[in-house]
Every structure is written in C-alpha cells, then in structure tokens.
C-alpha cells in the first residue's frame, strides 16, 4: 500500500529527525529489497531499448560529440572497470560519471525518449545512463541493474506526482538527481544512511533555473539531465566515503522548499511505496513516437489525421486562423502563451522549434507526419508557405483541458486539446485528441515490437546489422545478464560514423 509523506518546512529549532525527512524516506524505499515484477521488468527492457534508439540517432550531433569527447578525455577511475560510451568500441571505456554524462546527452539530445507528466515534468529514462554506467563500472549483473532502474523510475515519478518545480522556474532535473542517486543506491545495495546522504547531496547540486528551456533554447537542454546524472554518481561516491550532506535538504528553513519552491508555509503530499511494496512507477510513464516535446505528441497525431481529412487546411492561403485550445502547460510552455518570439522564428534553433507547438502543428499538418531530422531542417523551417501558416497558429488555455492534464485518473488524464481551424471562406473545422496514438490509452499503444522497430529505424544509418541484433538480444535478456554482459550493454557505431562527427577540443 502506498504511503503518503507529508512534507513541509521545519524551523531549525524544531530539530526534525532524519527519520522524518523526505530524503530518508526515499532512501528507505531505495534500500527495500522488494522483488521487481515481470510487468515492470518488461517495461524496463523497453526503455533500455528506447534510450539506445534515440542515442543512436544523435551520435553525430554536435552536443553529443562534444560530451563524448569530454568523457573520452578522462581516464578510467581506479575503483572499477569503467563504463562504455555510446558509439564507441566496447573496450573504449571511461570513468562512470563521465560515461553517464556522454550517454545522458546522447539520450536527451533529440527529445525523443520517455516522459511522465503530473505536478511537474520529467523524462524518467534519464535515470538509465547514470545507473547503467555505475553497474558497468562495479560489475553488477542484470538483476541488480533492473532493481536499480526500477528505483530510479519510481522515485522520480513519485516526486513529479507531488512537487511542482516549473511554477518556480526550477528545472525539472532537480527531481532527477535524487532519483538517480536512489537508483544507484539500490543497485549497489547501500544502507539507508548512505543513500540518504547521497540523495541530499544530489538534490543540493542539481537545482537550477528553468532558463535552459526558455526563449532561445541552447544546447544545454540536452546536457542538463546528463549533469544531474553525473552529480548523482559523485554524490553516491562522496556518501560512500562517509561524508554528509546539507540536511534537512527539502524541509530546512533555508532549504529547497522554503526558498526555491512554495515557501515556508508550503505543504506537499508525496506518495512513496510502503515497505515491501513493489516499485511500479515506470508503468505510469509513456514514450514518444515523435521527436518533440511530449505535449506535442498528440497534436502531431491530430495534424497528420487532418492532413488526410482536410488537406485544404495545410495551405495558408485558405486559412484565416488556427487556435489550439489546450492545457495551461502546453499554452504557456510550448505555445503562444510563453510570449517567446523565438517560437515563431524560422531561424530558431532545433531546441527552440521542438518547444514550439505552432511550428510543430504547421509542419505536421502540411507533411502528414513528423521526422526527427527533416522536420527541423533549416530549409523546412524557412519554407515560405510553412512560415505563413505557422504565423496563423496560436494556443489558448482551456480550463477543462488543464483539469484533465492534472487529473489523477489515468483514464481521464489528457495531453492534447481541441483545434479550431477557421478558413478564409468562413468554414470552421474542429477536432480534438486527448492522448497521443502511442500512449497506453491511445489509438496504437507502444509495445515491444514498436520499441524494436523504433530502434531499427534510428539505428540502421549508424550501426551495422550485426550490432543491431547483438544489442537487441542482450537488452531483451536484461535480468539474466552476467556482469560481463552488462558491460557490453551499449551500441558500437559503424566504422567512420564517429569520425564524421565534430571533435571539438577543450580544456581536458
């Protein structure tokens, strides 16, 4: 049975015992040796495949190449065997925190892996790179890796259910540092005290502003979760050496809640698994069929439907206006409510365009689909008819879609909205969509074969066929893998692929 932790700010003279702190309860969940159920194991395998898919597709992109070069410029730390780096030969390893950095950027670069949305936002697959890197470094087997990943997903999703960060312009990776530290604690079988210290340090070092996702969005967007994973590994290392961390990190009168979130009078109800309760949080998350912000997924599916049923709406000469009636988040973060002129700029960065629902809806409506590279190409963004249509698309917050977005009922929770297209001849076209086609409640829910198909599509340009088969065979045996096989749970690029990527030089 789920236990709800009542979270509030405590004055220093209240002397809140660590056993009453959220970080301690997170550590207790992480240290609980409960078995991982078959359904959860199956989904963890899916997400390991999913992460490798999007990492493969991003191997030659500049941010990924820069992070990879940083990682490879560091030697393997002496305490283990090191960890693999996506794209590199399996014997080309680096220190685990730097492998987590490089692989985390590769996974996050295309905005194309899994998501969970509730009080805040998250990409819980960001837990996989740091936990896997540590598993490879210390020689963990597949069963231990599965347990660690189940914890990472559980803690991040539970925090996202209860604590809103974005309202206070704190980046969502502040939930990732603690979850990754907890997952590593489970992987290593650490005690509650050690995990508690690691969680506190990880949170303390990963609270940052949300400017990384505002205005002209930079390449740091992909690095932010990788940084949180790297910090989580370093926090665990520090805690294992007996060092302590700021406490109480959440509840202190100068802590995160009091000064970064809702303030001294704030309260939150954080759901966590009870002792002996299975960690099933991953089952409430969902992946992406399209390479774009999650709130854009359903809108892409609706646009491609309208492309077939109402092709006249794709021609700006026929369109007076297009209004997307949607949730508060979609309107204010990726819609016109953000008041970011960059969201309507044909020369904007890819990172900016994938956070512009007016741009995404325009392209999907004209093309009848979405491509992770072609749909963001500068020549595509600058096409005259696309720009003209794009400028006619706005968003509006709709109270009902906001309510459904925040609903606790999975059958009612929605991430889409209603479109109203007004043509120049006065015709009005209306349609709506609640969830993406690939969502568990969507028209075509993603299953194992879909994850494998996505991997093949994204990996074929950069991996040899034998390498594709090798990785898929390993990943699907995840809980049975030996430590030696866990060390091979990576992808090796075709000869010459990495050489074609930029190899920038820096300080290291």
What would the keywords be for this entry?
EC 4.2.1.79; 20 helices; two-stranded antiparallel ribbon; MmgE_PrpD_N; 2 domains; about 500 residues; 10 strands; four-stranded mixed beta sheet; 2-methylcitrate dehydratase PrpD; single chain; 60s Ribosomal Protein L30, Chain: A; alpha+beta; lyase
Description:
- The chain is of the alpha+beta class and 508 residues long.
- It folds into two domains: 3-284, 2-methylcitrate dehydratase PrpD; 294-433, 2-Layer Sandwich (60s Ribosomal Protein L30, Chain: A), CATH 3.30.1330.
- Helices cover 43% and strands 9% of the residues.
- Strands 8-7-9-10 form a four-stranded mixed beta sheet. Strands 1-6 form a two-stranded antiparallel ribbon.
- A hairpin with an 8-residue loop joins strand 2 (83-84) and strand 3.
- The longest helix has 21 residues, at 142-162.
- The model has no long low-confidence stretch (mean pLDDT 96).
- Residues 290-478 form the MmgE/PrpD C-terminal domain.
- Keywords: Lyase.
How many distinct beta strands?
10
Please compute the radius of gyration using only Cα atoms: 22 Å
The CATH architecture term of the largest domain is: Orthogonal Bundle
- How many helices? The count is 20
Q: Give the low-confidence spans.
A: none
Give the SSE string: EHHHEEHEEHHHHHHEHEHHHHHEHEEHHH
Briefly note the structural class of the backbone.
alpha+beta
Task: Using the alpha-carbon principal axes, give the shape.
Answer: globular
Can you give the mean pLDDT?
A: 96
């Amino acid at each position: 049975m789920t236990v709800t932790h009542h979270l509030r700010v405590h004055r220093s003279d209240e002397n809140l015992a660590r056993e009453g702190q959220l970080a301690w309860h997170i550590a207790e969940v992480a240290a609980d040796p409960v078995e991982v159920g078959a359904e959860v194991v199956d989904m963890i395998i899916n997400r390991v495949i999913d992460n490798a898919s999007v990492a493969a597709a991003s191997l030659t992109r500049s941010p990924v190449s820069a992070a990879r070069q940083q990682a490879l410029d560091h030697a393997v730390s002496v305490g283990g065997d090191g960890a693999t780096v996506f794209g590199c030969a399996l014997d080309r390893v680096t220190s685990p925190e730097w492998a987590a950095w490089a692989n985390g950027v590769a996974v996050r670069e295309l905005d194309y892996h899994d998501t969970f949305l509730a009080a805040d936002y998250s990409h819980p697959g960001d837990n996989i790179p740091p936990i896997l890197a540590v598993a490879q470094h210390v020689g963990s087997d597949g069963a231990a890796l599965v347990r660690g990943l189940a914890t990472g997903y559980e803690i991040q999703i539970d925090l996202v259910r209860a604590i809103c960060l974005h309202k206070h312009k704190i980046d969502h990776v502040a939930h990732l540092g603690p979850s990754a530290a907890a997952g590593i604690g489970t992987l290593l079988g650490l005690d509650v005290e050690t995990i508690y210290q690691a969680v506190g340090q990880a949170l303390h070092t990963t609270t940052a502003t949300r400017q990384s996702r505002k205005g002209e969005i930079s390449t740091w967007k992909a690095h932010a979760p990788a940084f949180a994973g790297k910090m989580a590994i370093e926090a665990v290392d520090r805690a294992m050496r007996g060092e302590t961390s700021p406490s109480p990190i959440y509840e202190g009168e100068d802590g995160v809640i009091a000064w970064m979130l809702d303030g001294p009078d704030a309260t939150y109800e954080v759901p966590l698994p009870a002792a002996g309760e299975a960690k099933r949080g991953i089952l409430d998350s969902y992946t992406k069929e399209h390479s774009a912000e999650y709130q854009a997924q359903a809108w892409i599916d609706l646009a491609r439907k309208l492309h077939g049923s109402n092709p006249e709406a794709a021609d700006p000469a026929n369109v007076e206006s297009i209004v997307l009636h949607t949730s508060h988040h979609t309107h204010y973060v990726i819609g016109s409510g953000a008041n970011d002129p960059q969201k309507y700029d044909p020369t904007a960065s890819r990172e900016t365009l994938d956070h512009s629902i007016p741009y995404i809806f325009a392209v999907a409506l004209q093309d009848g689909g979405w491509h992770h590279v072609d749909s963001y190409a500068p020549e595509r963004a600058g096409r005259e008819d696309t720009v003209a249509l794009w400028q006619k698309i706005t968003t509006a917050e709709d109270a009902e879609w906001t309510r459904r977005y925040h609903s606790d009922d999975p059958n009612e929770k929605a991430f889409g909205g209603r479109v109203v297209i007004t043509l120049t001849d006065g015709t009005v076209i209306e349609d709506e969509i609640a969830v993406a086609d690939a969502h568990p409640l969507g028209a075509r829910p993603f299953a194992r074969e879909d994850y494998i198909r996505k991997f093949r599509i994204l990996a074929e340009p950069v991996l040899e066929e034998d390498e594709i088969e090798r990785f898929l065979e390993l990943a699907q045996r995840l809980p049975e893998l030996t430590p030696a096989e866990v060390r091979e749970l990576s992808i090796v690029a075709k000869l010459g692929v990495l050489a074609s990527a930029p190899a920038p030089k820096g300080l290291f």
